[in-house]
Amino acid sequence: MDTTEIRAHHGFGSITVVIAGLFLTALPAPRATAGQADPDPDPEVLHALAEDLAVTWMGAHPPQTMAWNWGEAVLALGLQAVHRETGSEEILQYIQAWVDYHLARGVHINRSDTVVPATSALYLYDIYQDPAYLDVVEECRHYLEDVAPRLEDGAIAHMVVTPNQVWVDSLFMFGTFYTMDGAITGTSSSFDALAEQFSLFQSHLMSPRAGLYWHMYDELVDRHVSSTPTFWGRGNGWALASLGMLLTELPAAHPDRPALVSAFVNHAYAVMSWQDPTGLWWTVLNRPGDTYLETSASALFAFALLRGNRIGLLGTPARDAAEKALAGLLSVIEYDDGNPVVTGISKATNPGPSWMYARVPVGDDEPYGVGAVMMALEEAGRPPIP
What we know:
The chain has 14 helices and 10 strands. By secondary structure, it is mostly helical. The protein has one domain (16-379): Alpha/alpha barrel (Glycosyltransferase). Helix 4 packs across helix 5 (134-147) and helix 11 packs parallel to helix 14.
């Protein structure tokens, strides 16, 4: 999730899409409110910037200062992306030092936000084959399967303290874990579980008219329509990025794959219809001018569109939108004494009415924003996946 811990913690014009029997008309794109993005950034420049962001972050934040939480976990996913491209021992040792520090102290898995850090334990297991990293993986499986509260239909609630609520954030927070667990350990039931959760979350949170996710659904209050029908940018980014990652790994013969592909493509085109001419997206997608352009959502969308293009599910319009987004991301990176600073990142966000999102403070170098930007920058230069 993307809430406080409660503080709990966490354009193309109108587009009509017909896929696998689904008919969806996305809401009209907003009019320009800022300058146009300069498209087609150089992948080598993007890769160098991602590496610079990683080195800058590590120099400013010793690994033991990083919490075992969702924001730091997204930062680590960004570091993983840079490590895959560079083979940097410094980055790998940083990820390992962060994970080892928390495993030695003991971690408490009590909500979706504390599951996602285990993606780095899976990453380390994949490299070192050290079974010690699987202990926390098993703890996360146990939490999701046996402890996490669920709605009547089986949808996993975001937190134990809100057992009747599903939040769109969860699709990334437990979703990336399930995907990496299935891919790295061969636990096919993790793929099955995530496919089911996407279906359940769509039934509660997806607007049939807009093709976008609402932020939260409360089983006791809402029943049919979300009482917080806000199309939150980062929440939609969480969902689209997570599904793109799942479809990268999900076997072609999996029975749920066709429905998931349709959901991914429809969601991607709905998102693209709300892209601002700057290349970025607003923190409430369909309320341009009422809120603000937001960096982490834009980075997650860029990553997801690039990933969808790489795996052959999204064509030229998505690649063009992603390149526009990358140019927009470059425009919000400033420099302090030669070091890159990622600006325009909304702070942790609880569900609420649209006006509330406009009041969420904006910060620089929030870990989840830096991580999402690194993921997007590195995805731009990666080759197609057959």
